[in-house]
Structure formats: structure tokens, C-alpha cells
Amino acid sequence: MADIVILSTADWDHPLWTNKQHVALALRAEGHRVLYIESLGLRASQSTGKDFRRIVKRLGRGLRPPKRIRSGLWVWSPLVLPGGAHGVPLFVNRFSLSCGLWFALRSIKFFHPWLWTYNPLTARYLSLKEFSLQIYHAVDALQEQPCMPRDLIEVEEHRLCALVDQVFVTSPQLERKLRPYSKHIRFDPNVADQSHFAQAMTLPPSAIPSDLSKIPAPRIGFMGAISSYKLDFALIISVAQRHPDWSFVFIGPIGEGEPHTDIALLERVANVHLIGTRPYAQLPAYCSGFDCGWLPLQNNPYTQAMFPMKFFEYLGAGLPVVATSIDALKQFSSAAVLCSGDPQSFDEGLQRCLAGQGPSLSERLALAAEHTYTSRTRRMLSTLESRQ
User: Fold this and answer.
1) I want to staple 373 with a disulfide (CB 3.0 to 4.6 A). Which of 26, 30, 121, 276 is the partner?
2) Residues 127 and 223 in one domain
3) In CATH, what number is assigned to the domain containing residue 111?
């Protein structure tokens, strides 16, 4: 079994778990030892309280050795300057990361590890030759997020794809975009922890959290980052105003990846409920109180390159799904109602699902069962065997 260094773009305890944390656990479950490196900070810090608190927390963590959080899994927070990708800050980050990683690996007795990175600037910060196998896992078009160094990410991502042994991507658009730069690339969509979300179908009505149960049904639910570069706020407001007897519940942090998200218009709509972030362990209970899951996404370069993790989480929870027809979801139209980005289309799609006229429960669960972290991780590991 291999020792694997995961270079993430998310901190381990981030309230929204993404591919990075789940893949770390899946690799550990397959018998590998994993060192999870928290985000290096692709974008420069913004003048917000959230960024300031994060910097203070990371300063404290950066002085500590890797923390063992489970058997075979450690988390380490390197001391780096957020957004330091040029000049003196880059030199400082390269030196700090290189030295810190040398000591971190030896403290947990990792020798000749693999590198599994989500950071498109990896080759700018680290020498890839130090790793016995190099994998780049592209899960988003990060350069399309607000406040990101777009041109730098574009150039460095192409260079990284040419250098690593294997590229994995989570959407057809990412595959089309990165294939010219990689000799070995594989598309596998985002997946879900099906057994975790399947709990939603077996929980009694009394298990529905009190903050949700007091909201009138039917409840159309969303779980994830509430940011205007991902979600179509105008669409949400229009559909909600058409149906004041429906409740639209949003669970997740506001402004993730977009520090200046303005939710003022959403807050003025009486049947739109922003209830905040909830722990991952509690999400199945919230799903049990939803009548439908929806993905009212923007249609822009970022969303056309993404594969929303919530898609299979909703399906795994047994929920009917109504979503914007982005590129990555079109191949799964048999299990969901996909809509153009206009209110009328979503109105009709939601009415169908609430009336039980969308894809059947058996169709939804069958598709969810095919897309789990265990099955995808085993496919990826099988692919990597041919690279060694």
C-alpha cells in the first residue's frame, strides 16, 4: 500500500466537505496511509472578518506537526502566505512548504509517497520529482471563481497536467479543456456517500430537525455554498414568488468563494429560508424533511465545468431532483428533471416532482448506487496501477 500526500484546496474542518476530504477517507479505507495538507490559499486574503479569523487559526496550526485524526490519516497546515505566487512571497512559500513538508513526512515516517493534488499551482510550489507518483485531480474550474488569479491558474494548470503521471477530472468540460495537455486523463463524475444519505429514507418524522419541521411543507431543499456566482438568485426569487405556499430551504455558508455575496434580495422573500450551515452528519436528517432537492445554478463558465456533489447526495437520500441543465448533468437526465435556466421551466419541473411525476425512486436510487466514493476510488486506483 502507498503513502499518499493529498494537497488540498480546502481545510479539513471546512463545514462543506468536498472531494478532498472524502477521497482522503476513501483512500484510507482502501489501506493507504494519507497525509492531508490543508489549503495553501489560492487567492489573496480579502478584507473580511472570515478571512482574518481563518488566518489567525492557520497561524496557530502552522506551528504544529501533522495531527493524527484517525488511524492512517494525518492533517497538516503549512505556514504560507495566502495568494503568494509571485516574487518574494512565492520564495517564502516554496521554502516554508518544502522544509515543512520534509519534516512532516519524516515525523510520520512517509517515504517515497504519492502526490495527489487538487491545487493547479502545485508545480509552482513543490518539486514533483520528490514523489514516486503524481496525480492531479481537477474538480472545478478554479480560475472562474471570483478573486482568483485567472491567467496564472490557467497557465500553471496546463503545465501541471503535462508533468504529472495521471489527471482525473470530474466533468466532461474539464476533460475537453485539459485533454490537450495530458497523455493520461480520465473522467469520473463526482459521487456521494450513498450509505450516509440513504439514512434519510429510514428516519421517522420525529427525526426531522426542529428548525426545519417548523417550516411549512412542501419544502424544496438546497445544500451547499450560497454564492451568487454558483446560484441564480434571480431565478430563485422568481420561482419562490410564483409559489408562496412552497418553502425554499437553503443549508450552507453564505459567500463561500465569494466574500461579498449579497443575499439581501433573498432575505426579502418570505418563503425563502436561509438556515445556515449544518454538520455533515446531520444532513440526512434534513434531507428526510425535504420533498425535493434542487440545483438552481447559474449558466456560466464555472458551472459548465462543475459537477455538483449534491446531485448524487440528493438521489442517495431518495429525493427527486430538479436542476439546471448544465453540461455535466445531461448524461443523467433519466434520473432527474433538468431545466433551462428560466423560471417557467423550473416551475414546471418542481410541480412535476412534487406531484410524483418525475423519475421513479427506483431509477434515482439505482443511479446513486453506481456513483459512490468506494467504487470511484477503486476505479482510480486501478487506473494508477498501470502508471507505476
Assistant:
1) 26
2) no
3) 3.40.50.2000
Q: Domain range spanning residue 350?
A: 194-369
Domains of the chain: total: 2
Per-residue pLDDT averaged across 194-200, rounded? 97
pLDDT digits (tens, 9 = 90+) for 152-192: 999 999 999 999 999 999 999 999 999 999 999 999 999 99
**CB neighbours (10 Å) of residue 354?**
18
Residue 199 to residue 288: CA distance in whole angstroms: 8
d(CA 236, CA 65): 45
Q: CA-CA distance, 268 to 248, in Å (whole number)? A: 13
Q: Is pTM beyond 0.90 here?
A: yes
Of 57-61, 125-129, 253-257, the range with the highest mean pLDDT is: 125-129
306 lies in the same domain as 378: no
